[in-house]
Design a protein that fits this description.
Layout (H helix, E strand, L loop, with lengths): L14 H6 L5 E5 L6 H14 L3 E6 L4 H6 L10 E2 L10 E6 L2 H11 L3 H8 L2 H9 L3 H20 L4 E5 L8 H13 L2 H7 L10 H15 L1 H14 L3 H16 L3 E8 L2 H16 L4 E9 L8 H10 L6 H30 L5 E5 L8 H12 L3
Parallel strand pairs: 1-5, 1-6, 2-4, 2-5, 6-7, 7-8
Antiparallel strand pairs: 3-4
Helix pairs in contact: 2-16, 4-7, 5-11, 7-8, 8-12, 9-11, 10-11, 14-15
């Protein structure tokens, strides 16, 4: 559900207004991979902290560059304070990187007995599920969000959580992950594996044994045994996954959360952004707007055609630098025009989406000063 237009030029996303709104407790940055989503999340968190918010940023990106840009040796599942920020306004900044398996382990440890937890944690099927199963990363990102939100309510350590979502190829994976994982863990296959152990279903044991025998031949006896052992130990947690999935969805849809879709001025990235925007709208999720990173600009008022013509008029032997510069400018103007067409087409199809465009930087974002610059550019109006 697109947010109403805020102060500034019509159609422009006012980032500072979002960060200053104390009713907003969660900002979710989503979009395709490689569009600067992690950098945007960190820059928003830093800007919020230096404006007085107690912020924590949760990233899913394992690249060390984010930890380096925040002045940290490394990031892990536990939020660590970021030093070197301006705390004059009373804000603070912590950062964490999702450890998918550790988060899953924490869920098991928190919601079952020590004996059951030990049995689950050493089960080979659980190890595979918690480490590499499709959709687990997206679900555990939301589990971690729930943990951080619960902690913030309990001790007031944070008043703003910014989530950098996984770079899923499909724009729908992030919203569907809780449902997919809870459906897997409560699905018919695992229920069938539990059937022989239950009183009323003992009558089915002969038929089940025939099916189990066939599966043993196809998959291997140890795999079936591991899954059966896991299902029996995990049974007490089935309902909890479903409940937390619903709580997570409700939290994301509440007035205390807002989504920011991140893209670049590229056809594929904008296509992914369009899927996100449309899906969020369908689910009545609170969408603030679109951040378009790495937009090319120039202050030189010279068209591509004119620059190319001037380059052709010059003798490249006598004026090699000027000739190359004009050709590069002509190529840049072509890129700018292509991006303008793509962005105008996106805006025409989704007229209510507020947008901010961040110019392409000449250097990598590798420290707090660079993140501050990105934050400044995110907040520029006009």
């Amino acid at each position: 559900m697109p947010a109403p237009t805020r102060p500034g030029r019509p159609g422009e996303l006012d980032v500072d207004a979002i960060l200053a709104d104390r009713s907003i407790e969660i900002i979710v940055c989503c979009g395709a991979g490689g569009v600067g989503k992690t950098t945007t999340s960190a820059a928003l968190a830093l800007r919020a902290a230096e404006a007085g918010r107690k912020a924590v940023v949760l990233t899913i990106d394992p690249a060390r560059r984010l930890a380096q840009s925040l002045g940290l040796g490394e990031l892990d599942n536990t939020p660590h304070p970021v030093n070197g920020i301006d705390t004059a306004a009373g804000g603070s900044l912590d950062a964490a990187m999702l450890d998918m398996k550790r988060t899953f382990d924490e869920v098991v440890l928190a919601h079952t007995t020590p004996e059951k937890a030990a049995q689950i944690l050493r089960n080979p099927f659980y190890v595979a599920l918690s480490s590499s199963f499709a959709g687990t990363q997206e679900y555990m990102a939301m589990e971690k969000l729930g943990q951080l939100h619960q902690q913030s309510k309990a001790d007031g350590r944070w008043d703003l959580i910014i989530v950098d979502t996984p770079p899923a190829r499909s724009a729908l994976d992030f919203l569907d992950a809780p449902e997919h994982l809870s459906s897997l863990l409560e699905g018919r296959f695992l229920r069938l594996l539990l059937a022989p152990a239950r009183g009323p279903l003992r009558l089915m044991s002969v038929g089940f044994n025939l099916v189990s025998s066939a599966m043993n031949k196809i998959l291997g006896g140890q795999i079936i045994t591991d899954v059966q052992t896991f299902a029996t130990a995990f049974e007490t947690l089935f309902g909890g996954f479903r409940q937390r999935a619903q709580q997570t969805f409700n939290l994301l849809a509440s007035e205390h959360t807002t989504f920011v879709v991140v893209a670049t001025a590229d056809a594929d990235a904008l296509r992914e952004a369009a899927y996100f925007v449309d899906r969020l709208d369908e689910e009545s999720m609170p969408l603030s707007g679109l951040v378009v990173n790495r937009v090319h600009r120039t202050e030189l008022p010279l068209s591509a055609g004119r620059a190319q013509a001037l380059a052709e008029e010059l003798d490249p032997v006598r004026h090699p630098v000027a000739s190359v510069a004009l050709q590069q400018h002509a190529a840049l103007m072509q890129v700018i025009e292509r991006e303008r067409i793509l962005l105008d087409r996106f805006a025409a199809a989704r007229t209510r989406i507020l947008t901010t465009r961040v110019p392409a930087l000449q250097t990598d974002v590798s420290d707090l000063d660079a993140l501050r610059l990105v934050g400044d550019l995110l907040a520029v109006q006009g």
